[in-house]
Amino acid sequence: MPAVVVSNGGDVPHFEGKITFYVILCVIIAAFGGFLFGYDIGISGGVTSMDDFLKAFFPEVYERKQHVQEDNYCKYDDEFLQLFTSSLYIAALIASFAASRVCTVLGRKPTMQIASIFFIIGVALQAGGTNILMLVFGRIILGFGVGFANQAVPLFLSELAPAKMRGALNICFQLFITFGILMAGIINYFTSNVHPHGWRISLGLAGVPALFLLLGSLSICETPTSLIAQGKNEEGKAILVKIRGTDNVQPEYESIVAACEAARLVKDPFKKLMKPSSRPPLVIAILLQIFQQFTGINAIMFYAPVLFQTVGFGSNAALLSTVITGLVNVVSTGVSIYAVDRAGRKVLLLESCVQMFITQVVIGAILLIDLKPTGALNGKEAWVVVILVCVYVMAFAWSWGPLGWLIPSEIFPLETRTAGYAFAVSSNMLCTFLIAQAFLSMLCHMKAGIFFFFAGWILVMGLFALLFIPETKGIPIDSMFEIWKQHWFWKRFMTEDEDEDDKVHQ
């Protein structure tokens, strides 16, 4: 039986292997890093809409919220309230570069363990917070955890998975993000009625999955690529046999060894990233993160309860609507797991752009016409907005959400993989910070126009996906360099001398 099957134009090898129970276990444990990220995204918006929390830390916002004639779009506009949400992401941006180095030197598994420790410390500071400074400091520590987890987990999943299932297994990271968002919505719904410390329960329960990640990571393996890169070739080969469920791993092993040998020749991966041949994956990785955030998804996920209160729902109804959108998010991410290695990455990206563009425009039009600075939408229109938000979330969840993490984790060669992915993570955190810090102010000043703002970005990113993102399904992670040579635009960056360097991979 041949070990390598050549397809995709005759240049890309396929290696033997299957999904084992051990791989599934490793994926579930590692993906809890995504659960923590999602829980934080979902929990902060609910907490910042709770009266007990506002009275304790943001009394001016609480007083403004009580004024029925206050401008619908501006009643939550407060820089410090936004800083509570956004401070985590600027910390994650900085931490991602340190995490890149840790990921390279120590491996993916220890980086996840460090992330879980940061999470536990940050949760304790937040749940026990007695002043704004303590809250924000806790958020910053959590940001370090996010930076380390978001650096290590997608790389771990991509390197662990066989090529034919890499998309589905990597998307488990995004699936667990959506689980985290949903669980946060459910918890906020119940704790909003627990006075006066329901918000402490919401923030403190993040410690449970953080502890699970820390303890569970003790039972998972390091990736073969990371082990071989550290010079532990025999251990790496043994793990490769274990996760592939076959003894016939020599071709894939040799491919990984060749990639590691090429990587050792690169003393400064960040300098290597500046060379023309590194430009295609670097540009795509960074722009995917920018586009992912400027779809407006985190504006909706962070502030969904606030948004739904703005259009006329009461506090409990707004939190319940958030649970509904969270459930849609989870189910739709499951669609991506099924479709990404069948339909491919590009089809999902393009289809979703059409769906998200239409929903953003229609939501904007409804609010522009019918939601005045005072008053609210009527019941039917408010529920139409909820349904449209669900349709929008559905499109994002099976495309730009998971693929924004999957594609950058698979397109870099080993010598620049952790460095390149650090740029992707930091770009994501920077844009998340900007949206989280600015959204409530943007909502106040742009009003319904904010949805047209995001629709414009969706149009741009759809054109980018159509013209510049190549299809990567089924291509082994250490053979990805071939796609740049075949792409109509990116092939111009593959200069002759760098093409010679690439042959080392083969």
From TrEMBL:
<comment type="similarity">
    <text>Belongs to the major facilitator superfamily. Sugar transporter (TC 2.A.1.1) family.</text>
</comment>
<feature type="domain" description="Major facilitator superfamily (MFS) profile">
    <location>
        <begin position="26"/>
        <end position="473"/>
    </location>
</feature>
<feature type="transmembrane region" description="Helical">
    <location>
        <begin position="318"/>
        <end position="340"/>
    </location>
</feature>
<keyword id="KW-0769">Symport</keyword>
<keyword id="KW-0812">Transmembrane</keyword>
<dbReference type="InterPro" id="IPR020846">
    <property type="entry name" value="MFS_dom"/>
</dbReference>
<dbReference type="GO" id="GO:0016020">
    <property type="term" value="C:membrane"/>
</dbReference>
<feature type="transmembrane region" description="Helical">
    <location>
        <begin position="19"/>
        <end position="39"/>
    </location>
</feature>
<dbReference type="InterPro" id="IPR003663">
    <property type="entry name" value="Sugar/inositol_transpt"/>
</dbReference>
<feature type="transmembrane region" description="Helical">
    <location>
        <begin position="282"/>
        <end position="306"/>
    </location>
</feature>
<feature type="transmembrane region" description="Helical">
    <location>
        <begin position="201"/>
        <end position="221"/>
    </location>
</feature>
<feature type="transmembrane region" description="Helical">
    <location>
        <begin position="449"/>
        <end position="469"/>
    </location>
</feature>
<keyword id="KW-0762">Sugar transport</keyword>
<dbReference type="InterPro" id="IPR045262">
    <property type="entry name" value="STP/PLT_plant"/>
</dbReference>
<dbReference type="GO" id="GO:0015145">
    <property type="term" value="F:monosaccharide transmembrane transporter activity"/>
</dbReference>
<dbReference type="InterPro" id="IPR005828">
    <property type="entry name" value="MFS_sugar_transport-like"/>
</dbReference>
<protein>
    <recommendedName>
        <fullName>Major facilitator superfamily (MFS) profile domain-containing protein</fullName>
    </recommendedName>
</protein>
<keyword id="KW-0472">Membrane</keyword>
<feature type="transmembrane region" description="Helical">
    <location>
        <begin position="169"/>
        <end position="189"/>
    </location>
</feature>
<dbReference type="InterPro" id="IPR044778">
    <property type="entry name" value="MFS_STP/MST-like_plant"/>
</dbReference>
<feature type="transmembrane region" description="Helical">
    <location>
        <begin position="419"/>
        <end position="443"/>
    </location>
</feature>
<feature type="transmembrane region" description="Helical">
    <location>
        <begin position="80"/>
        <end position="99"/>
    </location>
</feature>
<keyword id="KW-0813">Transport</keyword>
<dbReference type="InterPro" id="IPR005829">
    <property type="entry name" value="Sugar_transporter_CS"/>
</dbReference>
<feature type="transmembrane region" description="Helical">
    <location>
        <begin position="135"/>
        <end position="157"/>
    </location>
</feature>
<dbReference type="Pfam" id="PF00083">
    <property type="entry name" value="Sugar_tr"/>
</dbReference>
<feature type="transmembrane region" description="Helical">
    <location>
        <begin position="383"/>
        <end position="407"/>
    </location>
</feature>
<feature type="transmembrane region" description="Helical">
    <location>
        <begin position="111"/>
        <end position="129"/>
    </location>
</feature>
<feature type="transmembrane region" description="Helical">
    <location>
        <begin position="347"/>
        <end position="371"/>
    </location>
</feature>
<keyword id="KW-1133">Transmembrane helix</keyword>
<dbReference type="GO" id="GO:0015293">
    <property type="term" value="F:symporter activity"/>
</dbReference>
<dbReference type="InterPro" id="IPR036259">
    <property type="entry name" value="MFS_trans_sf"/>
</dbReference>
